[in-house]
Write a structure and sequence with these properties.
Radius of gyration: 24 Å
Number of strands: 10
Largest sheet: 6 strands, mixed
Number of helices: 12
């Protein structure tokens, strides 16, 4: 009898545990989807703290660039009515929320990215690339550390399905403002895939590089100090894309690295030979990165995060 009762207790515990877990997942079921814009943020094992830091940092600089966030009044009724009868006002608000079928959109919303150590902040009515560049520019200038957990901040100004044909089709029009004649520039492609095994890195890079070449033959690959970097981040079935400036200058958009003092300057100034050796080491690191397969889980430490692969499509 005791053994039977123990079995029944275990079963009930299992049922409770699975039911509890399911309700938790349902609560946070909103995740990164095709059609969204925002910011991908990587961190070291502490996603909750990373999210809190991200909100503080983004709101601080968004207030500078775009002004304080303005929340819309969804009541649609006069303040006199609300003061007269609070219950009526609440009922109206609930009815309007049900009619709209959604909560009021905030300018920053944390969603599940679909990968460990990566969070996605969905943005509303603002330019995420402009905001992130502004943050890194200020951190690079002031050298003031403003976060402990955040590693990299990558703007996402476009998303599409993470299949090669869908990516090429989407990028054909997406890349035009930067690379279509008469526009041109030096560039590199930074590709990374997480929880996705159906995309071959080399094939994706070659197809994107070929597309950029068709838009304008004057576009040239530069792996040392390109004017533009095409960011391609694949997570599960979603491909996140952006074109950003100063990728090398701002240490691959790493918030921790960009505030450090430049250690390369003393080596560069004494003699011209030091410059050439620095370039050679950069090329060697890039070549080493190109040989790796990038279909991996997010990195768990800062050094691993810095080894982001880049490709030229050759």
């Amino acid at each position: 009898m005791s053994a039977a009762s123990n079995d029944s207790r275990k079963r009930s515990k299992k049922r409770y545990a699975t039911g509890h877990h399911h309700s938790k997942r349902w609560k946070g079921s909103r995740e990164l989807e095709v059609g969204m814009q925002g910011i991908l943020i990587t961190c070291n094992m502490n996603e909750r703290k990373c999210t809190a830091e991200a909100f503080d940092l983004l709101n601080e600089y968004a207030d500078e660039l775009f002004g304080p966030e303005k929340l819309q009044d969804n009541n649609g009724s006069s303040s006199e009515e609300e003061e007269a009868d609070v219950d009526v006002a609440l009922k109206k608000e609930v009815a309007q929320l049900k009619a709209s079928g959604a909560k009021q959109e905030r300018r920053f919303q944390a969603l599940d990215s679909g990968a460990n150590n990566v969070i996605f902040i969905k943005t509303q009515n603002l330019e995420s690339d402009k905001l992130v560049h502004h943050i890194l520019s200020d951190l690079h200038t002031t050298k003031k550390k403003k976060s402990r957990v955040i590693l990299r901040m990558l703007p996402v100004t476009g998303t599409c399905k993470a299949f090669q044909e869908d990516m090429v089709k989407y990028l054909t029009t997406f890349l035009e403002p930067w690379f279509k004649t008469p526009n041109c520039g030096s560039y590199q492609i930074a590709f990374k895939a997480r929880n996705s095994s159906h995309n071959k890195r080399d094939e994706i890079i070659k197809s994107i590089a070929g597309l950029v070449g068709k838009l304008n033959p004057k576009n040239k690959v530069d792996l040392t100090n390109p004017e533009l970097t095409i960011i391609v981040e694949v997570i599960k079935a979603v491909c996140c894309i952006s074109v950003i400036k100063d990728y090398t200058l701002y240490r691959k958009y790493n918030v921790q690295e960009v505030v450090k003092e430049d250690t390369a300057k003393p080596d560069v100034t004494p003699a011209a030979t030091d410059t050439s050796t620095a370039e050679e080491t950069t090329k060697e690191e890039t070549k080493k990165g190109q040989g790796d397969n990038d279909n991996s889980e997010p990195e768990e430490d800062e050094e691993a995060e810095e080894e982001e692969e880049e490709g030229d499509g050759k």
